[in-house]
Design a protein that fits this description.
The structure holds two protein chains of two kinds.
Chain A: H1 3-7, H2 10-15, H3 18-23, E1 28-35, E2 38-45, E3 48-54, E4 64-68, H4 70-76, H5 88-93, E5 97-101, H6 104-108, H7 110-118
Chain B: E1 9-17, E2 20-29, E3 33-38, H1 49-52, H2 55-58, E4 61-66, H3 89-102, E5 109-113, H4 115-126, E6 133-137, H5 159-168, H6 177-188, H7 194-205, E7 222-227, H8 235-243, E8 249-253, H9 260-263, H10 265-280
Parallel strand pairs in B: 3-4, 3-5, 5-6, 6-7, 7-8
Antiparallel strand pairs in B: 1-2, 2-4
Helix pairs in contact in B: 5-6
The chains are: A alpha+beta, B alpha/beta.
Chain lengths: ~130, ~280
């Protein structure tokens, strides 16, 4: 499974996490997460994923974008990630990920987004 | 049934720091060599509660952990509401020396973490003769910033929650969830703008590059310990710093992050007990 294939499982992973849904209940935003070369457009409504659109969308606007290399996500999603790959800001500090756009909704809900982006760790390890 | 009490006792001490009266909260336990513990930026002395309750330490050390001015239960100075809090190398050093003097501690050991570790390096540079030994946790002469501190104090972002969420990634994934969340809870409870004010020292005022070369460990032994999951003060940052200080002892701690004493007390104990054993064996001068 590619890192993008793993991220595509996000709706089921989030639906199974009642605590994360509770913590995200104030959050409504459209944002984008790039898994390597593949963009994903997230529509978050009261903490739930109303839509996860995979692939390029012409003229699709987004409030903010989180980009990471395939290597970054592959390391980040290990069950026990290695030092320097274990946190979103560890990835940005090493230059393997970036944050762009209006970061206010991200910072207002930072733990939610960190935990959301770490959900693919719960999938079986990539072969 | 008798009450189940933790062994540490909390009190307030009155002292002046640079001519300003302060009421400083501290907790202490044990008897023997004074060991003063310095918490991380935006937190308080509770980070050291496991050391304060560890008979292997308190049987030989009088452990004292105080809340820095503006932190925890220390009362902010009169007129705080008209000031923007900003920690500097000078004000931090003055606070530590004032506490040690007010408590009449005879050449204490000082152990600090993060900003506490950085200031320990400054104590080694400027006041080594006042201390029996110095222990710098998660410390380096300088670290690359990894986020914009402007996000820490603004009305549209919850200060406590954003502080905790930012630093949550500095905790090792192996740390027990209960200790992880206790560590985060302390960050959620900091006063508005205090974490940001502490980081002024860390990022702007407290650059010790070049200065650490002047540390003389024959006057005061220096120990540096950094967790491998700390990407704020990385193991490489600490090793680079230690390489400039002849005689400094350095260790990278496996499966620990930026808050070793509170994020995984059992694991930290494996590393700190041998260091405290060595220090206890130093003949008093």
């Amino acid at each position: 499974m590619t890192p993008a294939d793993r991220f595509a499982k996000l709706p089921e992973l989030l639906a199974d996490d009642g605590d994360l849904l509770r913590r995200g209940r104030w959050l409504n935003v459209e944002c984008r997460v790039d898994i390597g070369p593949e963009p994903f457009h997230l529509t978050l409504r009261e903490g739930t994923l109303a839509a996860l659109d995979r692939g390029p969308r012409l003229m699709r606007s987004t409030v903010f974008t989180i980009r990471g290399t395939d290597e970054a996500w592959r390391h980040h999603w290990q069950r026990m990630p290695e030092p320097g790959w274990h946190d979103l800001f560890a990835l940005t500090k090493r230059g393997a990920a970036s944050l762009e756009g209006d970061l206010r909704p991200l910072l207002q809900n930072l733990q939610y987004f960190k935990d959301l982006l770490a959900l693919p760790r719960r999938l079986p390890e990539a072969s | 049934m008798a009450p189940v009490l933790d062994p540490m006792v909390g009190r307030y001490v009155r002292l002046d720091i640079d001519g300003t009266p302060h009421r400083i909260y501290f907790e202490e336990a044990g008897e023997g060599i004074p060991l003063v513990c310095l918490h991380t930026a935006g937190a308080d002395n509770r980070q050291f509660r496991h050391l304060l309750a560890d008979p292997a330490i308190t049987s030989r050390y009088r452990v004292l952990a105080f809340d820095m001015p503006w932190h925890g239960k220390s009362t902010p100075p009169t007129g705080w509401e008209k000031t923007e809090y900003r920690l500097t190398t000078a004000s931090y050093t003055a606070a530590i020396r004032a506490f040690c003097q007010a408590m009449e501690l005879d050449r204490p050991v000082v152990m600090g973490c993060s900003i506490g570790g950085r200031i320990v390096l400054n104590l080694a540079i400027a006041h080594a003769a006042e201390f029996r030994a110095l222990v710098a946790l998660e410390a380096a002469d300088f670290q690359q910033p990894w986020y914009d501190t402007a996000w820490l104090h603004r009305p549209d972002v919850h200060g406590g929650e954003v502080c905790a969420a930012l630093i949550s990634g500095l905790i090792a994934p192996q740390s027990p969830p209960v200790s992880r969340h206790e560590t985060l809870w302390m960050y959620m409870q900091g006063g508005p703008g205090i974490f940001k004010g502490d980081l002024y020292f860390y990022r702007v005022d407290g650059d010790l590059r070049e200065k650490v070369k002047s540390i003389d460990t024959s006057i005061c032994p220096l120990y540096l310990l950094t967790g491998e999951y700390d990407f704020s003060c990385t193991a490489e940052d600490t090793l680079r710093t230690a390489a400039q200080i002849p005689g400094a002892e350095v260790q990278v701690m496996k499966e620990l992050g930026h808050f070793p004493m509170s994020e995984n007390p059992a694991k930290f104990r494996e590393y700190i007990l041998p260091v405290l054993e060595k220090i206890a064996a130093i003949p008093p001068s």
